Every structure is written in C-alpha cells, then in structure tokens.
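User: Hey, my collaborator sent me this sequence without any context and asked if I could get a structure. I don't really work with proteins. Can you help?
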Amino acid sequence: MPHLDATRLRLPTGPRADLALAGIVLVLTGVAEGQRLGSDRGATASVAGSWFLAVAVCAALPLRRRYPVAVGWFTVVGTGVYYLLSTVDGPLVLVPVAALYALAAQGRTRASVAMAAVMVIGVGAGVLVGTGDVNGTAVFMLTGWLVAVVALGAMRHGRVAYAEEEARLRATQERLRIARELHDVIGHNMSMIHVQASSALHRLRKDPAQAQEALTAIKQGSKEGLRELRATLGVLRQVDEEAPTAPSPGLSRIDELVSSAARAGLDVRVEQSGGRSPLPAAVDLAAYRIVQESLTNAVRHSGAGHVVVSIHRGERELTLSVRDDGRGATRSGREGGSGIAGMTERAHALGGTLSTGSGSADGFVVRCRIPFPDHHEPIGGAADDQDPAGG
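Assistant: No problem. I've predicted the 3D structure and written it out in structure-token form, which is a compact way to encode the shape of the chain:
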C-alpha cells in the first residue's frame, strides 16, 4: 500500500484557491439543484435560471484580484437573485462571503461593510415578505457570520500592514547601520590619506625622505581602508557566499588607530583603567568606532597635535573620553557634521549617552557612557549594530 506523505499536502493559494472554491461551490450547487429538479418536474425553467446565476457568480470569483469591488457587488447581487429564484438553500452564499473577506483583507472596509449590509437587508426583507425560506434566526445568524468575516478580514489587513511597516523599519535601520559603518571606515582612512598626501606634496621638493615616508603611510592607510571596506561590504554578499572571517573591530585593536593617527602627525596617548574582562561585542564595536571617529575629527577639523583617549571599564558600564588640544568646538565646525550624529546614534542604540564640547583648557572633548549588564548578557537592540565584518 503506498505511503501518503502528509507533509507534501498543500492547500491551494492565490488564484488557484479562488478556482478551487468556485469549483466546489458550483458542484455542490449543481447537486442541490439536481435534487430539486428530480422532485419537481415543473421547475425546469426556474432551475435553468438558478443554474445560470450559479455559474455566473462562481465564474466571477477568480476575477476578484483584478476587479475586487466590482466582483464583490456582482456576487452579492447575483447570489441574492439566485435565492429569489431557487427554493434550495444552497452553498452559493460562500462566494460573496469569500469576496467580502478578500475586500476587508485588502483594507476596503467600507465596501465590504456596505455589501454585508445589503445582504442582511435583502434577507431581512425576505423574512418580512414571508417567503418561508428564511426566518428571523437565519437573519441573525447571517449577520453574525458577515460581521465575523469582515472583522477577520480587517484583522488580516492590520497584521499585513504591521508586518510591512516592521520590514520597512528594519530595512531603514539596516541602511543607516551600513551608512554609519561606511562613514566610519572610509571617513577615517580617507582623512588620514588626505593629511599624508598634503604633507607629501609640501615636502616633495624640500625633503624627499619625509615625502617618501608620507607616501608609505598613504600606502599602508589605503591598504587598511580597503581591507575594512571589503569587510563592511560583506554584509551585502549573497546568502551562499562564504562569510567574512576577519575579526570585528574592538578596543583590542585601538593600537591600530593610534598608529594610523600617528602617521597623520597626531600624538595619541591611551589611558585605560578598570577591569580587563571582555566587553559585549556591540559595546566593544561602538567604543572602537567612537574613538575612531573622534580621532578622524581631530585630524580633519581641529588642527590638534595631541590627543588623550581615556577608557574606563566599570562593572556595568564603559566610559571613555577623547580630548584634543585643537581649536575647540566653536571654531572647528565639527558640531554640524554627520560624524558626531553617528557617534550619538551608536551610544543611544545601546542605552548610553554621548556629549561633545570644548575642554577645560580649550580643545575639543568627546565623552561617552555605554552601559552593559552583568555577565555580558545581550543588550536589547544591540544585536542589530554588529559590525558586518563579523558576518
């Protein structure tokens, strides 16, 4: 005996579901009308008219995706006329019910409510006329069914709209995250290359040895920038491609930032205190990027010669500050750039704070505090801010 795999059984969806429903209703209606014809030989003309309406109503259902409102009204009116001609309480009412649900699920609530009201009024009028086919209980039950159908369709529309909005929000957050990563990676390295290129052009004739040293720094900086750029763009790779294996940037690689800034003529001193236990990946990445952007701003805008990076790892939070001896916030023009906004977004995404302004002895200072739970539990919202280099 052949084995039936239930997992392979799938209900039809889309246009096939409409065809299947129309076919089933038409067959059941035909069986009911056939029994009516067998019991009443004089009802041939009435049965023919009922058959014609049933075929027309069922044939219209598959067209509802192209003409939803028109098909809805046609099925409602056609079914009403069918019940006036036929003495059989057949299943044709399922077709307008399906059309009403589809309209409500598309957000056309007014049209579906209007059609449901017409159906209830029509059936109620039949009761008042005294056709004998329906009574007050039938009107009450039909009203309840139609209200439930329209409500279910409206709920379906709300769920789909919510899911679409949530998907758009996730896509927007992902675009912002990629833009922030590209800004941090490209901005930092290009700033260092710009400074070194200017230095090389200035010293090319006067001091070729120093110009060669600057060109070597440019080569190293561009190589590092390309490596980080490839890792960042790895987030856009195809699903079946191999994931990047480069480690995520973190404070353990802060010496690379110091070396890069030193090649641009910036003297950077790093002061670390507190614990030495590993930080959560999202916090480690955010701290690295904030220090990176702060050094980039110091090279690009402030004209600073010295920078002090202070990092303190507490039990439940990381605090850091980056102070330079440049021109300060009021004259450097750093307040209007996107770099500070990106740093602030990183801190806020992890529940932290970031402030910028002039230091106590002029210059510019960036202060940041990022909390993290004990035992490095995941931070809400932080998982979306992972560095693409880590896959």
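In plain terms: Residues 9-134 form one domain. You can pass these tokens on to your collaborator as they are.
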